[in-house]
């Protein structure tokens, strides 16, 4: 759920409408008929209902290499109308009573939108609009209407028919936004909302199944493991993955820097989410919590969210100078009067130094515990919205375990982390911006994708209060020309009609989820076929990351409990800093050396073993220049890895496998005025 900056567009004309029919005569259904005639068409669709406006059979199967084909949306919010108190996003993705009941506005928006408070906060103006959805849809859904349902089930069906094969439905809410918003019809507990949204997603699956003759027969398939997802895609259907994006997962908020949850709460929460089918999640979102600090928002929205941060936690965002090239977004300093009025008397917004671009809050001890709990349950971490301090530490932990389950799903991660993510085996997508912006972002990173052999994806963030591609205009010289063929060539896609309204990407932009195929065609026209080709490989790459996470096995630490020795030990009459404290399996103890540069810590593995990876969990007193050495006899040492740019934290040294009995960390240059100090040293064969 992300707010994007608006992009100024040229005025609209009717030229694109005159060009739209140019291909209509030449395009027809693709040749060849399925033996399973019209398997994609329901036998009992509700009437009346939205049109799909796609003809031809959806593709099935895999390519010649056995890879699944198709697009992946790694960040959508189908059920966000059930979050935030139930009245922030108006309309539902389906209803047993039909489309007229599903696509109707919130009660307070009638008769003219005067009380559409969140609408005018997010869109500007006075919020007034025609509240009628079905059948006229005069004013919504629209690319810049952030409070109306965009995920009606037939619109998702159109995206599936247009080539999408994986969709991540992030269950989302925000307790603070719920509590301060004027209109709600339920409580604001985040986990209660998550449970409801999960259940509604399963209800939607059953709703679609019913149209096709019973359980398991519909195209909307919730999956809980990667092999199940692959089978669904091979059948030509849509694999739906459940994720979570909340600010206080498991009740893990912090008040005045005091955590309001425990390890037991985290374990119970993770177990419950896993039972619900959730396989990916964010540890923090918008507000700092007991698990991690967030990547800031900009502009007036950033000011409003910082107010929410204070109301939720008792503290505003705090910044510091960044220690590396990565940085958080600049904090929004523009006024947000309606939000600032919520502050208690005498409390005002702080000022921030332009030189301090990083959140002081990183990944907390509870956050590390939650991340390791996710890894044990084979879940994937979403790093978007994490502060760079939190994301950097999370990547350190993932690297130390060689765990590939890391996702950046909608352009909210510093791009300086991208190669680390790909090296781990993770997956990244771009936010569903306009075709020009999206294509440019894709091309900036295509060399890395080629290097690591991965595809690309997009994050629509529909129903996520983010804003979506505006129309390029009817007079654009290179419009989307309707009808057009799907990327695989097997379907023909025309303008989408629901009720009395027909949408055209050229003049309406990406108003709802059904416009995803139109937007992809626009990306092809503006960015080139190679961008779309990378997108068409996205489902396979996402499933590779997921599958590798499921297959991951924690490495055996060969150094655990091993005999350890050191060049020196810092003396303290009350605490032991002996060498063995670095291999005792506890982060509450550590080895510390004397305060000079040339120091070492060595472990005897007991017998020769294959060594390929060494992890070093530094205390603040870390090594800036050091090397990893191995030996057969503990006397003659050879260097297998070295660095001159150590920055502390959790380091992972990888190198070609060698057989050795002894492993030594040899410090040559300190990173602080003190000595060298390690909480834990790990030695691994994998």
Automatic annotation (TrEMBL):
InterPro entries to which the protein is assigned, alphabetical: FA58C (IPR000421), Galactose-bd-like_sf (IPR008979), Metal_Hydrolase (IPR032466), TAT_signal (IPR006311)
Keywords: Signal
Domain of life: Bacteria
UniProt-recorded name of the protein: F5/8 type C domain-containing protein
Family annotation (SUPFAM superfamilies): Galactose-binding domain-like, Metallo-dependent hydrolases
Domain F5/8 type C: 551-686
Organism name: Streptomyces globosus
Signal peptide span: 1-35
């Amino acid at each position: 759920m992300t707010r994007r900056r608006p992009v100024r567009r040229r005025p609209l004309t009717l030229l694109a409408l005159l060009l739209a029919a140019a291909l209509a005569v030449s395009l027809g259904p693709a040749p060849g008929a399925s033996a399973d005639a019209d398997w994609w068409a329901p036998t009992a669709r509700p009437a009346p209902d939205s049109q799909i406006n796609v003809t031809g059979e959806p593709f099935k199967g895999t390519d010649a290499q056995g890879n699944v084909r198709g697009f992946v949306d790694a960040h959508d919010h189908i059920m966000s109308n059930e979050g935030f108190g139930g009245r922030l996003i108006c309309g539902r993705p389906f209803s047993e009573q039909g489309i007229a009941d599903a696509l109707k506005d919130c009660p307070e928006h009638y008769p003219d939108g005067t009380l559409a408070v969140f609408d005018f906060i997010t869109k500007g103006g006075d919020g007034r609009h025609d509240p009628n959805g079905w059948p006229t849809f005069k004013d919504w859904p629209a690319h810049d209407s952030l409070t109306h349902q965009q995920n009606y089930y037939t619109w998702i069906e159109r995206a599936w028919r247009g080539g999408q094969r994986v969709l991540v439905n992030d269950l989302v809410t925000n307790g603070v936004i719920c509590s301060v918003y004027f209109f709600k019809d339920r409580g604001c507990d985040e986990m209660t909302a998550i449970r409801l949204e999960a259940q509604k997603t399963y209800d939607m699956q059953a709703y679609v199944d019913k149209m096709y003759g019973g359980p398991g027969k519909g195209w909307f398939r919730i999956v809980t493991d990667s092999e199940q997802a692959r089978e669904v895609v091979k059948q030509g259907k849509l694999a739906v993955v459940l994720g979570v994006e909340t600010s206080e997962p498991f009740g893990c908020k912090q008040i005045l820097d005091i955590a309001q949850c425990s390890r037991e709460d985290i374990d119970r929460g993770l177990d419950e989410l896993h039972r619900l089918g959730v396989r990916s999640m964010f540890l923090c979102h918008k507000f700092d919590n007991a698990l991690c600090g967030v990547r800031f928002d900009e502009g007036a929205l950033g000011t409003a969210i910082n107010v929410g941060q204070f109301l939720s936690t008792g503290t505003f965002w705090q910044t510091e100078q960044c220690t590396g090239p990565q940085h958080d977004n600049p904090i929004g300093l523009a006024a947000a009067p309606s939000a600032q009025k919520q502050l208690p008397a005498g409390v005002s917004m702080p000022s921030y130094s332009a030189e301090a671009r990083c959140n002081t809050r990183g990944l907390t001890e509870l956050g590390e515990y939650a991340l390791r709990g996710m890894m044990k349950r084979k879940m994937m971490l979403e790093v978007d919205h994490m502060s760079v301090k939190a994301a950097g530490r999370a990547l350190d932990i993932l690297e130390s375990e060689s765990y590939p389950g890391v996702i950046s799903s909608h352009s909210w991660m510093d791009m300086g982390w991208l190669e680390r993510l790909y090296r781990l085996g993770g997956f990244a997508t771009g936010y569903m911006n306009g075709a020009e912006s999206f294509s440019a972002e894709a091309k900036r990173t295509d060399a890395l994708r080629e290097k690591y052999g991965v595809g690309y994806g997009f994050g629509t963030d529909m129903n996520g209060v983010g804003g979506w591609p505006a129309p390029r205009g009817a007079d654009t010289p290179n419009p989307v020309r309707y009808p057009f063929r799907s990327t695989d060539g097997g379907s023909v896609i025309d303008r989408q009609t629901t009720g009395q309204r027909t949408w055209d990407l050229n003049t309406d932009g990406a108003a709802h989820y059904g416009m995803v195929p139109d937007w992809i065609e626009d990306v092809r026209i503006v960015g080139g076929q190679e961008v779309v080709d990378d997108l068409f490989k996205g489902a396979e790459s996402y499933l590779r990351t997921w599958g590798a996470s499921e297959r991951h096995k924690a490495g055996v630490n060969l150094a655990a409990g091993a005999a350890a020795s050191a060049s020196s030990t810092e003396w303290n009459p009350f605490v032991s800093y002996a060498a063995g404290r670095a291999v005792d399996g506890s982060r509450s103890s550590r080895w510390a050396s004397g305060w000079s540069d040339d120091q070492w810590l060595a472990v005897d593995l007991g017998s020769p073993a294959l060594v390929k990876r060494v992890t070093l969990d530094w205390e603040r007193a870390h090594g800036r220049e050091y090397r990893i050495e191995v030996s057969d006899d503990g006397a003659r040492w050879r260097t297998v890895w070295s660095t001159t740019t150590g920055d502390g934290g959790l380091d992972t040294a990888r190198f070609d496998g060698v057989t050795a009995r002894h492993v030594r960390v040899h410090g040559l240059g300190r990173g602080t005025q003190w000595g060298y100090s390690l909480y834990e040293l790990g030695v691994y064969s994998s």
